[in-house]
Amino acid sequence: MTYRHLLALALPLAVALPVSAAEWSAQAKNEFVQQCVAGAPAGYEDAQLKAYCDCAADKVSAEFSEAELQEMSRQSPPDPAMQQRLVNASSSCGEKLKP
């Protein structure tokens, strides 16, 4: 399973967090990472998942404005173009899942 599946699981959390990583409280980022790890498919080590989820939290918060995150939360399912941006924003994090 690819990192894209992990990111899809973390998307609902992204909409509840502040705009940039600098604005995220330690608690908010920790919750994002915990939910990302908890929702991950089997087959990855905890250290890999944590590294991926930490990276994804930083990338997503830097790429999306608060308005965009709120827009995604109202759409069901989210707009495919927005989903692709989400995947693109965190694509460099996929290396964290390699053994």
From TrEMBL:
Region forming the signal peptide: 1-21
Record carries keyword Signal: yes
Region (Disordered): 67-99
Keyword annotations: Signal
Name of the protein described by the UniProt record: Uncharacterized protein
Organism: Pseudomonas berkeleyensis
